[in-house]
Structures are given as C-alpha cells and as structure tokens.
Amino acid sequence: MDSFDWSTLGDGIYAWYLAWRVPLRILGVIVGAIVLRALLRVSIRRVVDRVVNGVKKAQAVEHTVELSASPLMAVRVVQRTRTIGSVLNNLVTWSIVSIAIVLVLSELQFSVTALIASAGILGAALGFGAQNVVKDMLNGLFMVFEDQLGVGDIVDLVTTQGPVSGVVETVGVRVTQVRDVNGTLWYVRNGEITNVGNKSQGWARVILDIPAPYTADIDSVEKTMLDTAQSMADDPSWKRKILEKPEVWGIESISAEALVIRLVVKVRSGDQFDIARELRRRMKDALDELGVALPALNRLVLDGLDAKAPRKPAGKPLSRGAAADPTGAGGASPGKAAD
C-alpha cells in the first residue's frame, strides 16, 4: 500500500486558501465585527441594568436632605443611565461597522485613502446641511450627561423662540417634551435651549410677602407669621416636606400703602407650590384672629370725565342721584366741585 503524500495535501490546502483568501478574510472581518459588537452591547447592558437595579433597591441615604432632595431623583438616574447606554450602543455599532467596512474595502483592493477623503467631503456636506440636527443631538447629550433636567422636573426653559415653563415629560437626544400648566405639550428642540432653570433639584424656598398697615404692631405681626409657619412645619402631614425652620427676614419694603414683611421657608423641591398655598391660607386665618386687615394696594380713582388726575377714594359711596349726574356737582364743569 502506497503511503499518503502529505505534501500534496498541504499544497492543495494552500492553493485553496489562495483562491479563497479574500472571501475568507472578509468573512472573518464580518464575524469578528458581529461578535465584538455583541460582547460590547452585552457589557453596556449589564452596566446599565446594574445601575438601574441599584437605584430600585436603594432604601436609605445618609442625610435627610438627600432622601427628600427630589421626589423623582430615581427616575432621573434611571433615565439618564438608559439614555447614556443607548448612546453608547449606537456609538459602538457605528464605530465597528465603519471599521469593518474599511477593512472589507481594503481586502477588495479599493483605495482606502481616497475612500476616507471622499467620506470626509461627504460628511462635511451632510454636516453642513444637517447642522441643526447635530446641534440638537449634541446639546441633548450634554443636558443628559450633566443632569440639567429629568422626567418630572418643573423647569423654566429659555429658548431662541421664547420661554417655556412646565413639567418635563420626556428627555430625548434631539427633542425635550414639556407640558405647561394649561396641559399643552411643548416639543422643544434641544439645540434651541439656551438656559435651563430647574425647580426640582436640591431644595426650594417658599417666599411669602405679607403687607401690613402702618398702624399694625410689627412685632406682633412677625411673631404671628413665624408661629403660624412653625406650626405648619410641626404638622405631621407637612413635616417631611419642610427641611428647615421658617424664618422672618423682617421688613422687605416700605411703600405708601404698607410695610411688606417677608417670611421664608426652605422646603423639598417640587413641594414649594403646595406648601405656599397652604401657608397663605393659614396666614390669612392667623392675621384675621390678630385683627390685622391687609391694606388695599394701588387703589386709584380717576377724578372727572377726562381722567386727568387721580384722587383718593371718597369716604362715602355716591348716592343714586349723584350717580345719575356724571359731573358729580349738579351741572358743574367736570373735575370741579359745585359752589
């Protein structure tokens, strides 16, 4: 029996490889790109899931302020993490696909240098035509990375088209959705947002300005205001929402009508509006018990038909007969009293 010629087999395999070298390399590039993309996407997904699950399982924090800093802080962290994960997945996909295409074209004996130059020119043209879209996406990414706003935040946005205020419902890479107090849903392009005022991060402050007449005892009014606010802070239904003791900052302004006394309360962000409404109601009841009547501010009565000069309101209302006479003086000239 003749021995097997291994050299012939080796030559055959080498010849087969030379014939199929390019397709095999292209296949290797494609398979490698698919495997690498899958591994990176799995790694990103695991990191995102770990962060999200950690937020969901968190039960306690070190400081009370951190616990009540924002009622939707967990939602913000989850959304920001998932958004970043989505961006990283897209970045990984496009990077691997681009590198794989370049390697495949190089195996097909295309000029990679000329291709890259052409792609650069095409990219510049597309970038110039879609610069607003690119600006929207970049601005959206920075807002997400820097945690400027999140779902459920109460924000004041300054845009190139005008101000937008309301509650954030969706933070996208290109568009942010904000619903205002009337229920209108605004779609704001991220590239048009120039300033973000967030009322739901950290803490907020309730500022209550109470006008008091000059005849009132200012010390008694200030004490009543402080006691009323402190009683609300001690109320179990409001205690967790108020972070610090209320403070009376004293007389904020003096006008011809009244002395304005300012009260401030540091509260949990997002609850300042409910606390302010309840505090105003309690303050009104407390001042009524004290016998302090709030002065009427900026009340003017125009004197005469030509309405040239204002005067203080009269002490007595007009009688029915006087109301029928527009001059108020039985035929005298407007603006002058009858002799």
Write out key terms for the chains shown.
339 residues; alpha+beta; SH3 type barrels; Alpha-Beta Plaits; 3 domains; three-stranded antiparallel sheet; 50% helix; disordered C terminus
Topology of this protein?
Blueprint: H1 6-19, H2 21-57, H3 64-67, H4 73-107, H5 112-129, H6 131-145, E1 154-159, E2 162-171, E3 175-179, E4 185-189, E5 193-198, E6 203-212, H7 218-234, H8 236-239, E7 247-254, E8 259-268, H9 272-290, E9 301-303, E10 309-311, H10 320-324
Antiparallel strand pairs: 1-2, 1-5, 2-3, 3-4, 6-8, 7-8, 9-10
Helix pairs in contact: 2-4, 7-9
Describe this structure in a few short sentences:
This protein has helices spanning 6-19, 21-57, 64-67, 73-107, 112-129, 131-145, 218-234, 236-239, 272-290, 320-324; strands at 154-159, 162-171, 175-179, 185-189, 193-198, 203-212, 247-254, 259-268, 301-303, 309-311. The chain is of the alpha+beta class.
